[in-house]
Amino acid sequence: MAQRFGNFKVYLPNLIFKIIPDSRLGVNQAAFRVPLQLNKLDIKDYLTHVYNVTVTDVRTTVFPGKLSLNHFTGQKERSPRIKKAIVTIKEEFHYPAEPDVNKDFKGLQVEYQQQRRNNKLKGWRIRPTLRLRELSLNARQHVPSPYRDSDTPAPKSGSSSSSTDSSSSSSS
User: Fold this and answer.
1) 3-class DSSP state of 160
2) What's the pTM value of the predicted model, to 2 decimals?
C-alpha cells in the first residue's frame, strides 16, 4: 500500500520552502518558512516525495504580521502573516553552505557595485563610463532596426542629405 500523508498530490511543485537557519534546533531538525495554506500533512508529504527524506515530526506556527505606520496616508498597516515549520528528520540535517558570490559570478557583482558607487560619487547623475558607452554603441550597431530593411545598411547622417541635394540639382 502506498504512503499517503496529505490531501494533495505533488506533480510539479510550485511551493517555496525557504530554509531558516536556527542554532537552537537539534541535529536532525530544520526550520522552513512555508506557504500559509499548507498543513502539517502537506508539509510532510512534500518533503517525503520531493526530497526523499523521512520526516518524523512537523510543528508549525503562524506569526502575525507586524504593525507599521504608512508615512504617506498616516494609517496603520499590517505586513503579511508568516508560517514557520520545524521539521524533525530521521537523518542528520546539515545546512547548505552559503554561496560565494565572487566565485559563482566571477566577481561581477562586486565589480558592478564598485562601479555604481564610484559613479555616484562623481555627482548626482550616474554617468556611464567609456567602456559602457562603447558596449552600448556596439549593441546598437548589431541590433537591426524594425523600421528599415535588414539587408540595407543604415544611412550615414552626412551622406543622406548630400545624395538628395545632388539628385535634385541634376533633375533641374
Assistant:
1) helix
2) 0.53
